[in-house]
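User: I'm curious whether this sequence folds into something compact or stays loose and floppy. Could you predict its structure so I can see for myself?
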Amino acid sequence: MRLRILAWLVVLPEWFAKVAIILAANIGIMILGCIPVGASSLILWRWFPLTLSASLVILIPILVLVGSILYARIDKMGTEQYVINSSQQGDVQNTREQLLIHMARYQLPNELQALVQVGTNVNAADPLGRSALFWTVQKPEMVRLLLQSGAKPDGNALVEAAFWGRLDTIKLLFEATPDDGKTLVAEVGDRALQNATNVRSSGQQDRQQIVQMLVARGAKPILNTNQDNLP
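Assistant: Here's the prediction. I'll summarize afterward.
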């Protein structure tokens, strides 16, 4: 939730976003903000016992803190921390870029489009080299949005698309290159081909077409796989 809030704050005018994201990224400030909100809401609950009301005022910020800690531990990929670090420094540009990647990872098209519309660099990558395209290979409509906004197909995205058997995404990636994907396949074609023969989420026909497309663009056929994995 905190990152979705940041995603809407960071698309505001930069002078305002700079301050807003620093405040929103600070868990201590968030807790302080929850206290008056929780207290004011209790005014409507006059029939509650005073002791219960006081307990809720204390409980709300505690729940926010515990939830944030648990979410940070669940976020094993570390994408949240990249966003928070940039936000706490008031770095609007980098926060937008890392949020774009994060929104792509969790496949939130509205937030992704809002970030694209304010000119966020769609080719940005996280410290591990993963771009927004990498995270959206299973959502062709989001891939199309990124490509139309200037995203350049990269090897990691192709390998990931091959792994999931996304024939539709691979076609989009190849169409977005000047040489119909030949340079891309020359870079990572063998890895993509290996993944394509172990597809998780496509039928036999899609799998065979992916292998044929990769081989036609220069990937070397894998001779030690089962024959039905080859074109």
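Summary: The CA atoms of residues 31 and 63 lie 9 Å apart. The longest helix spans residues 50-74.
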